[in-house]
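Title: Prediction job returns without error message
Component: structure pipeline
Severity: low
Priority: P3
Assignee: unassigned

Description:
Job completed but the reporter wants confirmation the result is attached to the right record. Sequence as submitted:
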Amino acid sequence: MDSKTIALGLVIGLILGAGIGYGANTSQLSGYQNQLTSLQLQVNILQSQINSKNNEIANLNQQIVSLKSQLPSVIYSTYTAEQIFNDYYANSVAADQKYKYHTFYVKGIISDIETSFSDYPEITLKPWVVCEFEKSHSTMIAGLRIGQEVVIFGNCQGHFISVLLQGCSFFKIYS
């Protein structure tokens, strides 16, 4: 039961209590109880609709991944996570010129799945390429596992401790 339902129940309870205190008859009390039951039913229906919409969003995200896997990858460059990380390790100035603020595909093995400090879902690809996603991808990310191979589409923000890609989406998820 959420806070809106509890608050609604308290308000109706106060109304009922006030009515009883002033000599409300049983018919009024029954009417209030019927209204309360009706409101609780409406809250349950709305909660069910919200859950249904969340499932629809998750299904649409999966369809997007499927459709993206059918697009030609020649439009954007494709790199491995290891290649990007090694380029930054060898020469971060040259790597910034090649990757920073560029959008591309990165293929790698998942080594970590977590939520960032700013509350966005993140996947780290071996050896250390962090891919940050929008919150709408959380359900799909929850179904992934460490060791799984993926191809992710994102925009490189450069290198600090790790290479960071933001605005990521899935291109392909291998089973």
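Comment from assignee: result matches the submitted record. The CA atoms of residues 54 and 97 lie 40 Å apart.
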